[in-house]
Write a structure and sequence with these properties.
Length: 164
């Protein structure tokens, strides 16, 4: 993977992000479409636990939707923050179908755990020594700016909006 061509990095990244705990691609979850991209699937059961109201990142709790720009055909993305504490969180990370010059990404989801600091959530996934980093930063208007930085290659950005 270290010498993989740059055009394959998004496919490698999507595989690394979604390798464990993924729903089948024909699960039929969601009906929304951006262009020809179906909505990302979600597990049948979401375990959203309301955080303490005084928690600095309480606003992150719940379901967020956006689109990774920089991806060839605007990859749809859903983040569901299920549990949240002062320093950690758990979430469902999901992406929709995507067809790009470097290959197809099928709709999938996985549960991940990350770190929390005031105003920011961070996921690290992929190779332990050189992980991919996904940051979610709360904006003053109530949206979240997401940045996905692969361990090599360009970063992808998304503006996430709360949907629940």
């Amino acid at each position: 993977m270290h010498n993989a061509p740059a055009r394959l990095l998004p496919v490698i990244l999507a595989g690394a992000l979604l390798a464990a705990g993924c729903a089948p691609t024909n699960a039929g979850f969601g009906t929304g479409v951006v262009g020809s991209n179906p909505a990302p699937p979600l597990p049948e059961t979401l375990l959203i636990v309301a955080p303490r109201p005084d928690l600095a990142n309480a606003l992150f709790s719940g379901k967020w939707e956006g689109v990774w720009f920089g991806w060839a055909d605007q990859l749809r993305h859903t983040l569901v923050v299920e549990t949240l504490s002062e320093q950690t969180f758990s979430a469902v990370y999901a992406v929709g179908d995507s067809m790009a010059p470097w290959g197809k990404v099928d709709r999938r989801w996985t549960r991940l755990y990350g770190s929390a600091t005031p105003g920011k959530l961070v996921l690290r996934t992929g190779p332990v020594m050189n992980p991919h980093v996904i940051e979610y930063v709360m904006n003053s208007d109530g949206t979240v700016t997401a940045t996905l930085q692969p361990n090599a290659g360009p970063a992808y950005k998304a503006t996430m909006k709360k949907t629940n």
